[in-house]
Amino acid sequence: MVLAPTASPGLPAPALTASSALVAALPAAAPLVDPAALQDLGVQLDSPAVAKGFARDYTKMWDQRYRSLASALERGDLAGSMDAVLSLKTSSAMVGGLRLAQLAGELEGALRAGDMDHALSLLHDVAERGDETVDELQFSYVLWES
Predict the structure, then answer these.
(1) Signal peptide position in this chain (predicted)?
(2) By CB neighbour count within 10 A (0-12 exposed, 13-18 middle, 19+ buried), where does 103 fall?
């Protein structure tokens, strides 16, 4: 799968960001959560505590993010779907949720291609990867480290 930016009617061309480059470069068997991403975020912010807080907030907001994406897709709201999936992809990459970020990138591609049926078909996988990512973050990084 190649996550190349494509233009879609009514949507601006995607900007290439560090997180989109990270997602595009992932191997097929990307780790569920890459701990180096949170460490890097801590270094960039000059505060591991702030990075950990971001990850904690990410886990708390997961249900809301998913509901926003699912609702927009089910309503056929292309702009709302794109907003929700870009938020999910970027924030997931920032906390190291590589498989979820990769899947969100695939969903983004479906939206850019105007393939709402394919985008909707990915919702179940997004829900599963999201729950797994949150569980891993809570167990390994957010709850057990001081």
Answers:
(1) 1-24
(2) buried
8 A C-beta contact, residue 67 and residue 84: no
With H, G, I as helix, E, B as strand and everything else as coil, classify residue 20. helix
Tokens 């990915």 map to which residue? 122
Q: In 3D, which of 10, 16, 143 has the Cα closest to residue 89?
A: 16
Report the sign of the C-alpha dihedral through residues 47, 55, 119, 32, in that order: positive
Judging by beta carbons within 10 Å of its beta carbon (0-12, 13-18, 19+), is residue 112 exposed, middle or buried? buried
- Per-residue pLDDT band for 141 (boundaries 50, 70, 90) equals confident
CA dihedral 141, 128, 109, 19 (to 10 degrees): 0
The beta-carbon contacts of 51-54 under 8 Å, at least 24 apart in sequence, are: 52/141, 52/142, 52/145, 54/94, 54/95
> Bigger pLDDT: 13 or 29?
29
Q: Is the pLDDT of residue 25 over 80?
A: no
- In the block, tokens 């900007």 appear at 15
The token pair at 140 is 């390994």
